[in-house]
Amino acid sequence: MGIKKKIKIFIDVLMFADFLFLMSHEFTRDLYAHGCLGIALFFLFLVHHFLNPGFFRSLLKGHFNRQRILLCTTDLLLLLLMLLMAFSSVMMSGSIFEFSSIQMTSWSRPLHTFSCSWGFLVMGFHLGIHLKRFLDKLPAIPYISLVIFSMGLGLFCAIHSEFYVYLFQMNMWKRSATNLFQCVGELLGMTAGMIGVASLFGKRKKAP
């Protein structure tokens, strides 16, 4: 594995860990740290795209099969949601950073909650698309069992945490988890669920 590939993986791991912390704000309760790590997340997102310039260079080139359409749609949707996260964050920055004179509007927090919730799920789906080639190496029975288990776990976590509320109702951020570890565990479970969903798309390559 080359050094550039290792850096890409390291950046992606940092992004995911950062996103987990930000999505656990209900328990961390540190607005200043939340704001700083939010800025760091967007910076890492830019670095991620800087290290993967081929996506934009080839966006309008070549043949679009179903797998490429799925990947491009997911990437563009995630980009849009990240921009909405950043925009809504800027509109709330006056309540976090003293140097910002921007006054928080009535719609900035609901928009932030909405874009973060969908962004987290789309990120999990995006991760699943890239992990599919590794899952495809599993024999049929373990593969099917793992996919069913991960989707069941994700659905359970989404229902138990009431995460689904914030996908359709832009309300105050409050979930049913009683502590930070439960909150992170439910977020990881939903990520596993989205990876399982992503594995259903595209033709599965038979394991050797």
TrEMBL record:
Domain Flavinylation-associated cytochrome: 74-130
Name of a matching Pfam family: DUF4405
UniProt key word Membrane: yes
Keyword Lipoprotein included in the entry's annotation: no
Signal peptide: none
Organism: Fibrobacter intestinalis
The protein's name: Flavinylation-associated cytochrome domain-containing protein
Keywords: Membrane, Transmembrane, Transmembrane helix
Bilayer-spanning residue ranges: 7-25, 31-48, 69-91, 111-131, 143-167, 179-202
Origin: domain of life: Bacteria
